[in-house]
UniProtKB/TrEMBL annotation:
This is UDP-glucose 4-epimerase. GO terms for molecular function: UDP-glucose 4-epimerase activity. Keywords: Carbohydrate metabolism, Isomerase, NAD. InterPro entries: NAD(P)-bd_dom, NAD(P)-bd_dom_sf, UDP_G4E. Residues 6-327 form the NAD(P)-binding domain. Its EC number is 5.1.3.2. Signal peptide: none annotated. It comes from the Bacteria.
Amino acid sequence: MGEKVLVTGGTGYIGSHTVVELQNAGFKAVIADNLSNSRIEVVDSIAKITGRKPEFEKVDLSSAEECKQLFEKHPGIGSIIHFAAYKSVGESVDKPLEYYHNNINSLINILNNMHRLGIRHMVFSSSCTVYGQPDQLPVTEETPRKPAQSPYGNTKAICEDIIRDFCKAQADYSCIALRYFNPIGAHPSALIGELPLGVPNNLVPFITQTAAGIRKELSIFGDDYNTPDGTAIRDYINVVDLSKAHVVAIKRLIDNKQKNNYEYFNIGTGTGLSVMELVQTFIKVTGVKLPYKIAPRRPGDIEKIWADTSLSNKELGWKAEKSTEETLLSAWNWEKHFRGI
Ligand code: WQD
């Protein structure tokens, strides 16, 4: 049985898929989650997929005391993958203090316990949102970050800086930040997937809920962008491909292959897709007549972004493998399974 990895936010969308891939790679996973944006049933779903039930602790990581107790209760943690954070762009605009408190204090508490206990490896869940609207595309890791468009995005940039400075001060600790582009899709088993509570902010869950008849119609936010079909462009990355990148990153740290003790990588497909192209692909692969309309632009949205993934391909030896078609079908299968359709 391999190294014990603490996965914070491990019952969440990307966290749960990463626990599956960690277990498939022979690691032991301990999940810490406050269940504010996920359900405890995900633990059993993971066990159904892998045949092994991860340990689980309900914990508020923004509490220094609760975070300390977590590590007391689970000795032998060798490395950490830190997902736990509030992640809604829109909500962060309405509740900035909650976002700064939760996302930043959770990270600082994790780093303090890493340092206290000599846990030397962490992979951090970051986001392409740190680039804002890049001046040049595709965006590389050396593209300068831009002022965040939201408090959520700002917490990601601040957390990257905290990790960078921690690693500068502690040369024998190593961290990797993975800058996700747009994660979509679900595990092929359809037993885990994206489960937004309330009205989905993100495109694909809104599409699958509309296809399931839960939402009346999809609003496409703007068709007057400077793009081929006028709708905004993103780099949609399959969630299983994305989860595998975390296993590769943890192995890189454990095997001491990192070039320096703070690295960051773009995790995307390297291809941009417009909202309309994604909608038409969903309709094509599922045969569902998806009702949609063109609506005004959503404030805060950027026009277009997609990744240059050559660094993660070369240094991590990782590449996105699944097609958009397969990914959208997996999202639809998950929606149908979850709704019992
Ligand atoms: C994608 C495109 C929308 C909904 C954000 C965060 C990122 C990450 C993912 C957390 C945009 C359009 C959407 C809808 C639409 N955060 N859209 N109708 O905004 O690129 O990224 O979520 O995990 O850090 O910044 O993702 O899925 O919300 O939007 O037309 O009902 O789909 O305008 O062009 P986004 P998204």
